[in-house]
Design goal:
mainly alpha; 3-stranded mixed β-sheet; 7 helices; 3 strands
Length: about 230
């Protein structure tokens, strides 16, 4: 029994569960608080996009999805997709999420460098995320059977996993910047109270922590793999 692996597993599970609990509880709280603008998530999203000259970006509702963080912006077709709880409701939580996703649309339109870098990494990450575990398992099997080349294969798996982690790290400034853009737009509306803008910040800060937790968990596992190779 590898006690180091068990420790890494416990810590990563705690980080994941803790961050998910925080975002769900925070969003649930503020999704029940009406916002003074009386605008639904779809309406405030349309206003923010238009204010930034993005009249070509469309908004669509994801039917039947109430889950948190299902909302997203797709730069391939310039569509902001909002879940029903965000699209149809005039709450602090819905406004925060909608403006955050529009922040990604603004990034794309302005050529925000970290967002462009993340987009360029997608093909590599898709390959790496689908293959690194298989390569690692093959390397470990070869190691247990004393087959030559096992260590090299494990190192290849680590390099592939490193590409996944790089993507997660690059994602952090992209998410933080989208949050900053969204909050700036929310605060620019004189109808929004300080309490409401504070609630929006709490929602988006909790969402950002899920990305931080994911990156930390991946880095911990990477350290474990490096330790395993040294053995």
């Amino acid at each position: 029994m590898d006690l180091t692996y068990l420790l890494v597993l416990v810590v990563t599970l705690a980080l994941g569960a803790g961050s998910q609990f925080l975002i769900k509880s925070t969003y649930k709280k503020w999704s029940q608080v009406p916002i003074s603008t009386q605008l639904t998530g779809a309406e405030v999203a349309r206003n923010m996009l238009d204010a930034n000259g993005l009249t070509h970006v469309t908004i669509q509702k994801i039917p039947g999805i109430e889950g948190d963080l299902s909302d997203h912006f797709d730069p391939r077709n310039n569509v902001v997709s909002l879940s029903e709880s965000v699209h149809d409701r005039a709450t602090v939580g819905a406004t925060a999420v909608a403006c955050h996703e529009c922040g990604h649309a603004v990034q794309h339109a302005r050529g925000y460098a970290p967002a462009k870098l993340r987009g360029s990494l997608v093909p590599v990450v898709n390959l790496a995320s689908n293959s690194w575990m298989l390569v690692l398992m093959a390397g470990i099997f070869m190691l247990t059977q004393a087959i030559p080349g096992a260590t090299q294969l494990i190192w290849l798996a680590i390099i592939l996993y490193g590409a996944v982690i790089l993507f997660q790290v690059v994602t952090l400034p992209v998410e933080f910047d989208a949050t900053s853009r969204g909050l700036a737009y929310i605060r620019s509306n004189p109808a929004v109270t300080a309490q409401e803008s504070g609630g929006a910040k709490s929602v988006l800060r909790a969402a950002a922590l899920t990305y931080v937790a994911a990156a930390l968990s991946s880095l911990l596992y990477l350290l474990y793999l490096l330790t395993m190779v040294r053995r």
